[in-house]
């Protein structure tokens, strides 16, 4: 065995090479690498998932809008269909005196038409016509589930010249027969008279009935 070389006294030892920061902190370096990789992976994942998600949301919104539009169109068509059904129940060519017509929850029948009346009321309390009075006798039945009002002011008389006449305010001289406003309970039937003051040469042609602004019917008077 050879003897070790004795140190040379007075010689300067070689400086120890200094390691860099990463070499000296291996644990922290590993943690930093893991964190950076996690951040990059998350960013890439969000970027790849973002567009499909937005597309899916847009498709859902478009689908909902299309569904709402279709539903609205169906409801409109159904409402128009209901109106058409109600109108088809009354045929102007056949509905005349003595034939009931459907007017919403009312069933209205014209029972008589009196023309050429010059005076209503009595000698003490009465009224003379400006032209001639036309008195239309009607019966009104409530076929609905609730009480409803029938107003004479909504009912128009049309003559053979196409002139439309409103009821006369003189109807108060008809006493109990006046139909200024009748509140009819479900299942009940009321009778009354509609009074019109028209020109002396006017010939009644038809009665245009209305209630609630949406229900209409026409009765031929000839």
Task: Offer a quick outline of the entry.
This protein is of the alpha+beta class and 222 residues long. The chain is 30% helix and 33% strand.
Description:
The protein has 222 residues and is of the alpha+beta class. Helices cover 30% and strands 33% of the residues. It is built from two helices and ten strands; from the N terminus they run H-H-E-E-E-E-E-E-E-E-E-E. The protein is rod-shaped and about 130 Å long.
Write the layout of secondary structure elements.
Blueprint: H1 21-24, H2 26-88, E1 101-103, E2 106-121, E3 126-142, E4 148-151, E5 156-159, E6 164-165, E7 181-184, E8 189-198, E9 204-211, E10 215-220
Antiparallel strand pairs: 1-2, 2-3, 3-8, 4-7, 5-6, 5-9, 9-10
Please name the defining characteristics of this protein.
222 residues; 4-stranded antiparallel β-sheet; alpha+beta
Q: What is the first-to-last residue Cα distance?
A: 149 Å
With strands numbered from the N-terminus, the spatial order across the biggest sheet is 1-2-3-8
Q: So what's the oligomer here?
A: single chain
Round the mean pLDDT to the nearest integer and report it. Answer: 80
How big a fraction of the residues is strand?
Answer: 25-35%
Individual helix count: 2
**What is the molecular shape?**
rod-shaped
Helix content bin: 25-40%
Order of helices and strands: HHEEEEEEEEEE
Q: Rg to the nearest angstrom?
A: 47 Å
| Strand runs, count | 10
User: Based on helices, strands and strand pairing, what is the structural class?
Assistant: alpha+beta
Largest sheet: 4 strands, antiparallel
- Uncertain parts: 81-88
């Amino acid at each position: 065995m050879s003897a070790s070389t004795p140190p040379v006294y007075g010689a300067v030892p070689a400086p120890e090479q200094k390691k860099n920061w990463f070499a000296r902190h291996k644990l922290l370096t590993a943690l930093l690498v893991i964190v950076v990789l996690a951040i990059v992976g998350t960013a890439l994942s969000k970027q790849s998932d973002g567009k499909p998600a937005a597309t899916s949301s847009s498709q859902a919104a478009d689908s909902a809008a299309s569904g709402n539009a279709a539903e609205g169109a169906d409801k409109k068509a159904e409402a128009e269909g209901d109106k058409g059904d109600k109108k088809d129940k009354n045929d102007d060519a056949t509905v005349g005196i003595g034939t009931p017509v459907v007017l919403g929850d009312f069933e209205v029948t014209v029972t008589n038409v009196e023309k050429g009346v010059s005076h209503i009321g009595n000698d003490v309390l009465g009224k003379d016509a400006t032209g001639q009075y036309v008195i239309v006798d009607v019966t009104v039945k409530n076929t609905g589930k609730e009480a409803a009002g029938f107003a004479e002011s909504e009912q128009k008389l049309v003559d053979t010249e196409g002139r439309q006449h409103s009821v006369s305010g003189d109807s108060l001289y008809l006493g109990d027969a006046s139909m200024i406003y009748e509140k009819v309970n479900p299942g009940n039937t009321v009778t009354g008279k509609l009074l019109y003051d028209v020109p002396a040469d006017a010939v009644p042609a038809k009665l245009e009935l209305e209630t609630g602004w949406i229900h209409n019917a026409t009765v031929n008077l000839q």
